[in-house]
Amino acid sequence: MTSPSPEFARYERKKTELEASWRDEAGQLRLAKSTISNLFRYKDRGAAERKLSLGDFNNVIALDAEQRTLDVEGLATFETIVGHSLPRGFLPLVAPELKHITIGGATVGIGIESTCFRHGFVHDGLIEADVLLPSGRIVTCSADDEHSDLFHALPNSYGTLGYILRARIRLEEAAPYVHLGIKRFDNAGAYLDAMQAATDADDNDFVEGLFFEDRRFYLMLGRFSRDVPQVDDILRRNIFYKLVQTRGDIYLTTSDYIFRYDPEWFWNIPESPFYTLFRRYAPKRFRNSSFYTKYAATKNRLLDMIRGPRDTGIEPLIQDWEVPWQHGEALIDFCIDNVDLGGLPWAAVPIRTPRQPTLYPIQADELYFNLGCYCQVRRPEGKERFHYTRIMDRKCFELDGIKMLYSSTFLDEAEFDARFNGSTYRTLKKKYDPDGRAPTLFAKVAYTG
Ligand SMILES: Cc1cc2nc3c(=O)[nH]c(=O)nc-3n(C[C@H](O)[C@H](O)[C@H](O)COP(=O)(O)OP(=O)(O)OC[C@H]3O[C@@H](n4cnc5c(N)ncnc54)[C@H](O)[C@@H]3O)c2cc1C
């Protein structure tokens, strides 16, 4: 028998220590990490009884080039994962575009990307996971073992059934560059037809889009490339979403492509003279989404201290929705006609998943249109808080769609249960968290005002 690699041995040691330390633990759990959270719930989370620090579980364990798999600890970020696998010629099947999203968070939080039309969601690349149950027991689960019910319920569980300590994920071969071809359309129907056709073609590695309220629709088709005529700079000189509107072709390193929206937290770094200088000259460690997240939180805290907490009418519209492809045009028309983003873009991604997870009611093998919005908006005069999120959620459900839960839900518990398979969730919760040490999914995601 071969001895485990030093990385596996280190991981096993940490796991044993975690189990041993558990005996003294009590109270409801909340995860503490060393990187930022990419949740965007519209309410304060309140104090946790006990924070469980898993910040050390953030390393790559082993890449198997022959099997095209990667073993990685649950709190490893995609920056770490891509930084390890890309120089060896590989990438995860789906790699989210914010650097500090973790493999554990993206697996339980329905991670998406421009490869979803081919590979499904982040969790569709999961082969096996070690999960720390809320009781402190650690189990290994995969698609067809004794804990397969847990494996299939991890997506959309948001840590409420346990925390992933190790994931084995599938990889695909990758080249050092990505060539993006950009086509502009002036109507939603033609845009969606072209996007759908692109998902059927064999030669697109990435398919995605951006569109604006003045009905400019941009389709981006990406292909891996070993050689490019130039490399565009989207860290200092250009802002990615602006470049898309001015060019037919963009050439990026693959790493820059994967994290193309990270430096500007999509399109949220302002464009004043100060920020233009910041963009150009700030040390690289400040040019990422974690910096923006921390900066925005600090700014809001300071403003609250100076002028007292108050409703300014500016609120987040940070959310993804998915509808069956045939309803994509209706969703586009609705958002353009009813939501004012002040000229910022909507993001579009086609998704086809090979299997339906237990807690996320998407049809396997059907093409879905994913719409994303990641900015602050001004609420229309006289409307209730989070007006735009509420009307978009409602429209999405009307169109047989699904709302992602990294943001807040405004459903009551009965409708939430009906939509997200609440009865099976309760059975799983009894089995894997009989003492209720972790909150329920509804308690975690419901907006309570
Ligand atoms: C502005 C914005 C943009 C986004 N863009 C993208 C995108 O481009 N692509 C994409 O895929 N997703 C995107 N997301 C969604 C994101 O992937 C999810 O919110 C994801 O759950 C965040 O994971 P995290 O690693 O940051 O973990 P956190 O935000 O810290 O935690 C998210 C949830 O997962 C749980 N969790 C964290 N780690 C683990 C673990 N190891 N095991 C079990 N549960 C765990 C936490 O308890 C929590 O409920 C975006 C979210 C926002 C707010």
Topology, please?
Elements: H1 6-21, E1 29-32, E2 50-53, E3 60-64, E4 69-73, H2 78-85, E5 90-92, H3 103-108, H4 116-119, E6 126-132, E7 138-142, H5 148-153, E8 163-173, E9 177-185, H6 188-200, E10 206-211, E11 217-225, H7 240-243, E12 249-253, H8 254-258, H9 273-281, H10 289-307, E13 314-324, H11 328-338, E14 346-352, E15 367-378, H12 387-398, E16 402-403, H13 413-419, H14 422-432, H15 441-445
Parallel strand pairs: 1-2
Antiparallel strand pairs: 3-4, 4-8, 5-8, 6-7, 6-8, 9-11, 9-12, 10-11, 10-14, 13-15, 13-16, 14-15
Helix pairs in contact: 11-12
Bound molecules: flavin-adenine dinucleotide (FAD).
Bound molecules: flavin-adenine dinucleotide
Rg to the nearest angstrom? 22 Å
* Overall form: globular
User: What fold name goes in the CATH topology slot of the largest domain?
Assistant: Uridine Diphospho-n-acetylenolpyruvylglucosamine Reductase, domain 3
Q: What's the architecture of the largest domain in CATH terms?
A: 2-Layer Sandwich
Structure annotation, total helices: 15
Using the coordinates above, name the CATH class of the largest domain: Alpha Beta
End-to-end separation: 57 Å
Task: Characterize the largest beta sheet: strand count, sense, and whether it forms a barrel.
Answer: 8 strands, antiparallel
Taking strands numbered 1, 2, ... along the chain, how are they ordered across the largest sheet?
12-9-11-10-14-15-13-16
Unreliably modeled segments? none
Number of strands: 16
What class, by secondary structure content?
Answer: alpha+beta
Mean pLDDT: 93
Question: What number of domains?
Answer: 3
**Percent of sequence in beta strands:** 15-25%
The share of residues in helices is 25-40%
